[in-house]
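Backbone-to-sequence.
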């Protein structure tokens, strides 16, 4: 790649770090949601509280906290380094919609794990694989834990809906509008 085209690519795409954080977040969320649904189905619906259900709960707590820490790092990086300027062919409404979508995703990527963590602090269910205990972030209150988990589920559903719109938009830009939006996160796909 010549220096000029490299520079052009650099301002059009997210940095290596921003891209790595984006795709690691995606991979973790892609594990986290089905594990959350499966553990609640096994435990609460089927009333099977065996080793597997326990492992799914413990794994869900650990991965959830990893997502929270990763997103806080990502937000700090985003606020200090910014993002490349919007793809130039976007309509004004698309700019607005994408900014709402992206900041909504960030908001839910913080709020969903915080609600889960508040829930296990209230319950309390802070032990991880019997090896160590997470620090509680609020005082135990079993009755309130149920509410926190309902909020946690509602936030997770909202997150999945926004991700659905986000992925649909990325594919729409790539296959229908044939612009460079997807290339911003996958530079190999720049046209
Ligand atoms: C982005 C991160 C997270 C996502 C997307 C997520 C998603 C989910 C989903 C989809 C469920 C199933 C909801 C249901 O069927 O009731 C669930 C349940 C649960 N999550 Fe998370 N979660 C995240 C982070 C966390 C964290 C950080 C914790 C705790 C440290 C946590 C603790 C729980 C618990 C204890 C349940 C079971 C609630 C119940 O028994 O009703 N989650 N989560
Ligand atoms: C868990 C799933 C995902 C989450 C939480 C997520 C989250 C985000 C966030 C917060 C941004 C804004 C970045 C910023 O400006 O700081 C973003 C940008 C982007 N994401 Fe995702 N993403 C996910 C999955 C995907 C997938 C599967 C694709 C591709 C099919 C994708 C393609 C893109 C693209 C192309 C951008 C740049 C858009 C632009 O700047 O105009 N994302 N993503």
């Amino acid at each position: 790649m010549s220096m000029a085209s490299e520079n052009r690519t650099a301002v059009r795409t997210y940095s290596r770090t921003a891209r790595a954080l984006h795709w690691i977040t995606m991979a973790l969320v892609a594990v986290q949601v089905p594990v959350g649904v499966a553990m609640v189905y096994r435990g609460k619906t089927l009333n099977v509280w065996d080793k597997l259900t326990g492992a799914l709960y413990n794994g869900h707590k650990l991965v959830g906290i990893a997502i929270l820490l990763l997103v806080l790092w990502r937000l700090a990086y985003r606020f200090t380094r910014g993002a490349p300027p919007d793809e130039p062919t976007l309509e004004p409404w698309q700019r607005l919609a994408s900014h709402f979508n992206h900041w909504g995703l960030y908001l839910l990527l913080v709020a969903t794990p915080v609600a889960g963590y508040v829930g296990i602090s209230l319950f309390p269910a802070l032990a991880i694989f019997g090896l160590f205990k997470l620090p509680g972030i609020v005082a135990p209150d079993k009755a309130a834990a149920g509410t926190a988990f309902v909020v946690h589920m509602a936030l997770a559903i909202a997150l999945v809906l926004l991700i659905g719109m986000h992925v649909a938009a990325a594919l729409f830009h790539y296959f229908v509008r044939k612009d460079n939006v997807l290339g911003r996160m996958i530079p190999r796909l720049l046209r």
